[in-house]
Amino acid sequence: MLRTLLFLLVMANIASAIGVVYARHEHRQLFVAFKRLERQRDELNIDFGRLQLEQATWAEANRIDQVARNKLGMVFPSADETVVVRP
């Protein structure tokens, strides 16, 4: 009876040790994945900031005016070409 109890305690101890090793291994894998995702998030935030800056640059009024004049040949209408429509 004492041997059986001792055997069961040793087996429980071994099972517990294997569980601890498995949990540590799983924790390390999840931590590495977490850090990789954190790095990816930071890179995406940097790209997003660059894109916002680029969008702001392209949307500036003087840039739009310059493109309209140079590439599209647009000009402001003169006073005699302006028509006011009243309801």
UniProtKB/TrEMBL annotation:
Pfam family, one: FtsL
Residue stretches in coiled coil: none
Keyword list, A-Z: Cell cycle, Cell division, Cell inner membrane, Cell membrane, Membrane, Transmembrane, Transmembrane helix
Lineage top rank: taxon: Bacteria
The keyword RNA-binding appears for this protein: no
Recorded GO CC terms: cell division site; plasma membrane
GO biological processes: FtsZ-dependent cytokinesis
InterPro entries given in the database record: Cell_div_FtsL (IPR011922)
Membrane disposition: Single-pass type II membrane protein
Compartments in which it is found: Cell inner membrane; Cell membrane
Protein family (similarity comment): Belongs to the FtsL family.
Assembly description: Part of a complex composed of FtsB, FtsL and FtsQ.
Matches recorded under HAMAP family: FtsL (MF_00910)
Function, as annotated: Essential cell division protein. May link together the upstream cell division proteins, which are predominantly cytoplasmic, with the downstream cell division proteins, which are predominantly periplasmic.
Protein name: Cell division protein FtsL
Organism in which the protein naturally occurs: Lysobacter dokdonensis DS-58
Name of the coding gene: ftsL
